Amino acid sequence: VLSLDDTERVGPFAVTLAINSRTLMRVPAVLEQHSIEPLEFMASAGLSPNLFLGGPRWLARDFCFRLVDQAAKMTGNPFFGAQVGSMIELSDLGPFGADILSASTLEQALYVAQHELRRVHSGAALRIEKTPREMIIHFQFQGRLGADPLQYDLGSIAVLQTIAKLTGTNDGVRFNLASPYTMASGALEAYFGGDLSFGASSNAMVIDRELLELPLVPPKRSSPPDLYYVTSTAELIKQFLPDGEANLKHIATILRTNERTLQRKLAKFGVTFEHLVDITRRDEAIRLITQSSERMANVAFRLGYSEQANFNRAFRRWTGNQPRVYRRDNA
């Protein structure tokens, strides 16, 4: 399901059809608004809780489409993607969001989003069209669609709206949606306002040109979502393993929380801090052994082991083999 070998030619290029897992950062929080716990959702979707434990990663595009479609069905919200997208903060989206927030005007921010979209979507594009009175930002997935992209379409348009809101005004912004109007479509006004057109040739945000030179107002950062703590903890464990500081107290302090709260947030995704340290060591050990020629003593040190014998025992528990045998068979 998570294979990234989902590639095809888009124009003259071979493109991997993948989406960065950062785009899912707010999904658990929205599920909880519908009284659905993350573990309950993962079980219903047949997912391992380990899915998000390695930090941000690329996921096959059709997998993401199906995942969010499953969430829409469980919540009973046919516009679940718009709800998630309206809650996403640009800081959730890593370098993509950071580059947008560094722009000085709305127009500059939109061109940055067009250029940097590859940081969160591979196999999608923003096309900017300018007329004497408006700028139209078209969003479209490229290549074949093996699953319905509706929820991700709505979420992506909602993120574009988040960029427009950085000007501090909602006036002069309209939305064209490719999906046809249905009896339920009126609910979309809660996310996009009342200026909506349906059955358009593409999903797009339309902005009056006089708004483009407005400066951006830095957004207020709300509390990070629980999934942020899971992915950040995994990344910090990896960072501090060589220093022997990959411990709960140190990492909770960096994340500006306390040990008990961090453990509770991890438990929502079916993991303890100790389990996360073990998983991170395992994944890093396999990566270093198969993708580098480092001496085993150095690998053990980088994983926070003071004795290579302890590392060898752990590696045998993880894989059933000694490190040197595993490198010989898998390098």
Summarize this structure as a short list of keywords or feature phrases:
331 residues, alpha+beta, 15 helices, five-stranded mixed β-sheet, three-stranded antiparallel β-sheet, disordered N terminus
Can you give a write-up of this model?
With 331 residues, the chain is α+β, with helices and mostly antiparallel strands. Helix content is 46%, strand content 13%. It contains 15 helices and ten strands. The chain has a five-stranded mixed beta sheet with strand order 6-7-10-8-9, with helices on one face. A three-stranded antiparallel beta sheet has the order 4-3-5. A hairpin with a 2-residue loop joins strand 1 and strand 2. Helix 13 crosses helix 14. The longest helix is centred in the last third of the chain and has 19 residues.
Short note summarizing the structure:
Helix content is 46%, strand content 13%.
Helix-strand layout with pairing:
Elements: E1 7-10, E2 13-16, E3 18-20, H1 27-33, H2 38-44, E4 58-60, H3 61-75, H4 80-87, H5 94-101, H6 106-116, E5 121-122, E6 124-130, E7 134-141, H7 150-164, E8 173-176, H8 189-192, E9 196-197, E10 203-208, H9 226-240, H10 248-254, H11 259-267, H12 273-291, H13 296-302, H14 308-319, H15 323-330
Parallel strand pairs: 8-9
Antiparallel strand pairs: 1-2, 3-4, 3-5, 6-7, 7-10, 8-10
Helix pairs in contact: 4-7, 5-6, 9-12, 13-14
